[in-house]
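Example 3.2
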Amino acid sequence: MLDKLNTTPLEGIRIVSFGEVLFDIIDNEPHLGGAPLNFAWYASQMGAEVALLSAVGNDLLGNRALNTIQNSQIEPLIMRSELPTGVANVCSDGSFKIARGKAWENISVPLSVGPEVQLLYFGSLAQVSEENRSSLMTLLDRKPRSVLVDLNLRDDCYTNQTVEDCLYHATILKVNENEWNVVSEITGIDDPETLMRQKHLNTMAVTKGENGATLYSATGGIEFKTNEIDLIDHTGAGDAFSAVLAIGILVNAPPAQALAASCKAGSIVASKKGALVKLPNDILHAYQQIMN
């Protein structure tokens, strides 16, 4: 079980992560992931109370996923479905082919998820089904204080309307450079700060892989350039970035500090094998001085 950062200022900070739990199939080997799970994994390490709202099948992969989640710091709000557990086939060029008709496309919302949620996290992929779109609206109707949308666009799994809906509901938006180009094309807005004003975003992050990221907030835009790393596996790196950024925002960390910690977290995950790794103490305690 992962050790949780024991700091009282995070007590009562509750996050709900909504969406897909699936296995990436790489060279015929299943690796547990899905952006909402990865995000929950890292946000819980940072000390937040994190519930993961998803669904898996009554099958071996579903059992494996539940076992891993139950032995972490994540609160599993995981339904069991007659549909099989989700999978995504990872191609040699790094692209994904996501299998449809899987358990994660039919997520229901328990009554226990109420208005005390400080942050709701979701992406575009979970919105491919009408059932999930309805569940997401139920969560949004319960008025979480902040909504972090990590767009995570996947080919053939989103529409222009999906992107517009994400922008409408988000208070915090995270995209990579390619996703920003898509957002710009759909909205006709080519400046992040203009997008923030028109879509009423509080914060926006654009990640740039090995070139770091840019963070936009009420005080303007700032950049952070990451140190060169030995890239092993970028899977989960963006989700770690989002999780550490979310915690920084929730504890009112200065934007430059939150951006630096988030970029470092993403780099560390990219230098390790697999999407779910243990963050080092300097990341876990990145906001310690603020919270004390």
